[in-house]
Amino acid sequence: MSALASHRKSRARTGIAGMAGLRTNTPAVGFTTAALASVTLLSTQSANAAPVEPKPSVEEVQKKVDDLYRQAGTATEKYNKAKETSAEKRREVDQLLDDAAQRTEKLNESRRTLGNYAAAQYRTGAVTPTAAMLFADSPQDYFEQTQLMDRMTDRQRGVIEDYEAQRAEAAKQRTVATKSLEALTLSQKALRTSKQTVQSKLSEARSLLSKLTAEEKARLAAIERQREEEARRKAEAKAEEEAEARARAEAERKRLEQERAQTPSGDTGTGTGTGTGTGTGTGTSGDSAYATKAAKVLSFARSQLGKPYVWGAAGPSSYDCSGLTQAAWKAAGVDLPRTTWDQVKVGERIATKDLLPGDLVFFYDDISHVGIYIGDGMMIHAPKPGANVREESIYYMPIYGSVRPA
Asked: CA nearest 328: which of 361, 356, 303?
């Protein structure tokens, strides 16, 4: 029995130990399962996560910001155009409404006159001619009243015709006013859209710049200075080229004068017709009137140096590009349209090599920027948001074309 008991006891201990071992190993199994699940989940999340885009380089940011500013410039001109159109439509609608009010008053006057005639006819309509003559103080009074009523009938016909004409014209004016109001609504919608576009482009540009580190901003400023220096070198090279061309033209002029002075009076000369024009802008058929106006334009433009660029502004405290050119030529007594797209159509088209101070130089294929030429390849312009009115090379941007406004 003792051996049996011993055997049972041993089995019991083994069972307990096995259970203890099971309890001890269970958490380990659970932990392993959980760990595997976590690894699998993390792997899945990593696979599904969007790849992180690399941070753009300073050069890429500079290119993007320049492009956004240019797009904002185009949108600014659209805004200026929509604003101008909206103002024109508002004046047109106000005039139509004033005309409609006046015609309505005339219509009401005709209506009141017709009402008076109708009331008079109602009062006398029930009385026969015989009775009217009997009730009259005398036959003479009757005949006088009859003649008066005949004349009133003619006047009534005239009043009715006038009333019909006034009513037709009033209806026509209402139709025109309705169409003008619809056009005004569309122009105001375009104005809001252009404004939102400008603000969106400028906001995006500011956001890109705000993400740059101090070191990156310093590099960006260095790139900008390098671009300005390159544009300055181009302007100086152009100025030297023009100076050499002027010197050659002057030398040729003097040579021809000397030849004419040495030619005998009876000799008619060979008439070679070489001419002295070199297209360098040394003269435009003695157009002193233009030079006088241009001097006023440049004087005004120089007095605006340092004032900030603000999109949609036309002075006196801030300007956008076309606002500055419009105000400058206004100072010379010449009215220019508001936008670059309209200003480029005014006056005479001029080749870059023939530019004179005061001429307008337009940039980019979409004609979204303009500056005032001051000579030697330089201009005064309102560049972009965050910058002030300043002098700069015309070769800083791709040139579209040039115009001499007057």
From this structure: 303
Distance between CA 313 and CA 338 in Å, rounded? 10
Cross-strand partners of 391? 380
User: CB of 47 within 8 A of CB of 338?
Assistant: no
> Which DSSP category does 211 fall into?
T
**What distance in Å separates the CA atoms of residue 13 and residue 114, rounded to the nearest whole number?**
127
The predicted model gives 123-128 an average pLDDT of: 54
Secondary structure of 258-317 in HEC code, one letter for each residue: HHHHHCCCCCCCCCCCCCCCCCCCCCCCCCHHHHHHHHHHHHHHHHCCCCEECCCCECCC
Task: Report residue 19's pLDDT band, with 50, 70 and 90 as the boundaries.
Answer: very low
State the virtual CA torsion across 30, 33, 34, 35 in degrees, nearest 10.
120
CB 374 within 8 A of CB 299: no
Contact 182, 122 (CB under 8 A): no
Which residues are catalytic, by number?
321, 369, 381
3-class secondary structure, 103 = helix
pLDDT score of 5:
46
Amino acid identity of residue 36, one-letter, is L
Q: Tokens standing for 136?
A: 């009259």
Q: What is the pLDDT of residue 310?
A: 94
Amino acid code (one letter) for 142? Y
Cα–Cα distance between 312 and 76 in angstroms, integer? Answer: 6
pLDDT value at 41 more than 70:
no
Separation CA 81–CA 77 (nearest Å): 6
pTM over 0.70: no
Instruction: Extract long-range pairs of 367-370: CB within 8 Å, 24+ residues apart.
Output: 367/340, 367/341, 367/400, 368/70, 368/73, 368/74, 368/76, 368/77, 368/340, 369/70, 369/73, 369/321, 369/340, 369/397, 370/321, 370/322, 370/325, 370/340, 370/343, 370/344
pLDDT of res. 12: 45
Amino acid residing at 384: K
Query: Which residue carries 């070679």 as its tokens?
Result: 272
